[in-house]
């Protein structure tokens, strides 16, 4: 049998080859069927599942997902992400920066409901290592939290929160593991924080953590400070080195800055004071942060902001170094640019910032669906030069919609990561 990188030609050629070789697909052992399809490139695999029901049934098997994961542990890394509704289904396109191409993933399957395109934004969506965690409950109803793998279509509904609410922060961290030497398993931790609904001030400081190994929610410490200290929909950024989930919000002193939650201890850093960067010599008397979004890139943490000054509006990217400086952190500005175009109503952030490669950040226009890529390895001046661009995708007849939170993360598409925790795995 040919190896995966030796398979060439169109999908039709490959299917003809199968037809010539095998008189009856169903006569083949299941493991042979799975191995044949597992060698197809990702886009051709999806096409094969569309044109032949027998192929589709194979791609639904968990054993096929495992076979595929052995050949390709990671299919691609997608960023930025664009959500849209088409033919009553939720669709996703992501930019594969390594190959400079937009990729279309399969439509989301039941029980994930299709979004209402008449609503400007609806769901809160977090993602990590092949899985999404999303709240798809309607605002008038209780929350509905799901883990979902868009490649395998596997979904797992999390238990209801003890204090029912629609959180403003959802963060998910997936841990990959090996089982039986060759199967990728997963465990995950989901953190939900706050509530932005009117009349839910008592819930706006609540923190809950779901550990898939334990299979239950655990209450964390309340957010320090006033009610609604966290009032921006976001996914936060997890700092692996310190074990902290960082979020943008109002600190205990009332200023806007970074709040820190210790995931293992389930406690907030109450003495943590980390205001936004204020460069020495800045001539602006008052700066309003119209956008403030944390983003992780190559293991480093950045704050992307749209700042309104007295005379101008600008985009800034600042790098945050923890455990350094006299205050326990230092900011370094790596990029400043004038905001491009006229500013409209801020119903949804017109610009977001996403990682697109090693030490590369893209300032992405969510309306035009295009972006400019910058190198952020140095300090301001070095990082000011553009390093490429992200063209807009062809969305055909799809109706665009936005998640409640700016999607500031890259999504690694993986078949082998299960939305349902698998026991008996050793972390890697």
Structure report:
The structure is a single chain. The two termini are 31 Å apart. The protein is mainly β and 428 residues long. The longest helix has 11 residues, at 11-21. The chain has 5 helices and 26 strands. The strands form 6 sheets. Strands 1, 2, 3, 24 and 25 form a 5-stranded antiparallel sheet that branches. A 5-stranded antiparallel sheet has the order 11-10-9-8-26. β14 and β15 (267-268) form a beta hairpin. 11% of the residues lie in helices and 37% in strands. Pfam families: F-box. InterPro entries: F-box-like_dom_sf (IPR036047), F-box_dom (IPR001810), Gal_Oxase/kelch_b-propeller (IPR011043), Kelch-typ_b-propeller (IPR015915), SCF_F-box_component (IPR050796). This is F-box domain-containing protein.
Number of strands: 26
> Multimeric state of these chains?
single chain
How confident overall, as mean pLDDT?
A: 84
Number of helices: 5
Q: How would you sum up the major sheet?
A: 5 strands, antiparallel
Structural class call reads mainly beta
- Radius of gyration, in Å, reads 23 Å
Distance between the termini: 31 Å
> In percent terms, what proportion of residues is strand?
35-45%
Write down the overall geometry: globular
Percent of residues in helices: 10-25%
Protein name: F-box domain-containing protein
InterPro entries: F-box-like_dom_sf, F-box_dom, Gal_Oxase/kelch_b-propeller, Kelch-typ_b-propeller, SCF_F-box_component
Domain F-box: 22-71
Organism: Ceratodon purpureus
């Amino acid at each position: 049998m040919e190896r995966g990188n030796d398979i060439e030609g169109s999908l039709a050629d490959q299917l003809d080859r199968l037809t010539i070789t095998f008189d009856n697909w169903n006569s083949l052992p299941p493991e042979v069927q799975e191995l044949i399809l597992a060698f197809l490139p990702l886009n051709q695999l999806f096409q094969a599942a569309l044109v032949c029901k027998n192929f589709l049934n194979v791609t639904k098997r968990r054993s096929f997902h495992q076979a595929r994961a052995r050949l390709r542990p990671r299919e691609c890394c997608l960023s930025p992400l664009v959500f849209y509704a088409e033919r009553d289904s939720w669709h996703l396109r992501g930019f594969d920066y390594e190959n400079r191409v937009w990729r279309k993933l399969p439509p989301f399957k039941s029980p994930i409901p299709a979004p209402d395109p008449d609503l400007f934004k609806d769901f809160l969506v977090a993602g990590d290592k092949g899985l999404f965690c999303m709240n798809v409950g309607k605002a008038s109803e209780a929350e509905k939290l799901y883990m979902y793998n868009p490649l395998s279509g596997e979904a797992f509904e999390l238990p209801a929160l003890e204090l029912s609410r629609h959180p403003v922060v959802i963060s998910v961290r997936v841990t990959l593991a090996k089982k039986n030497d060759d199967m990728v398993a997963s465990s995950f931790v989901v953190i939900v924080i706050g509530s932005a609904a009117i009349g839910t001030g008592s819930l706006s400081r609540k923190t809950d953590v779901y550990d898939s190994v334990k299979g239950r929610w655990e209450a964390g410490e309340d957010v320090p400070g006033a009610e609604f200290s966290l009032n921006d929909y976001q996914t936060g950024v997890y700092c692996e080195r310190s074990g902290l989930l960082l979020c943008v919000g109002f600190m205990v002193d009332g200023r806007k800055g970074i709040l820190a939650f210790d995931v293992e201890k389930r406690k907030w850093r109450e003495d943590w004071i980390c205001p936004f960067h204020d460069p020495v010599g800045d001539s602006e008397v008052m700066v309003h942060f119209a956008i403030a979004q944390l983003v992780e890139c190559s293991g480093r943490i950045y704050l992307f902001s749209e700042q309104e000054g007295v005379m101008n509006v600008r985009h800034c990217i600042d790098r945050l170094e923890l455990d350094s400086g006299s205050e326990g952190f230092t900011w370094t500005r790596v990029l400043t640019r004038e905001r491009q175009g006229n500013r409209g109503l801020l119903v949804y952030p017109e610009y977001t910032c996403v990682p697109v490669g090693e030490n590369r950040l893209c300032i992405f226009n969510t309306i035009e669906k295009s972006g400019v890529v910058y190198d952020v390895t140095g300090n301001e001046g070095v990082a000011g030069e553009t390093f490429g661009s992200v063209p807009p995708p062809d969305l055909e007849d799809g109706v665009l919609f936005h998640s409640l939170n700016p999607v500031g993360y890259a999504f690694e598409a993986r078949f082998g990561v299960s939305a349902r925790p698998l026991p008996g795995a050793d972390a890697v």
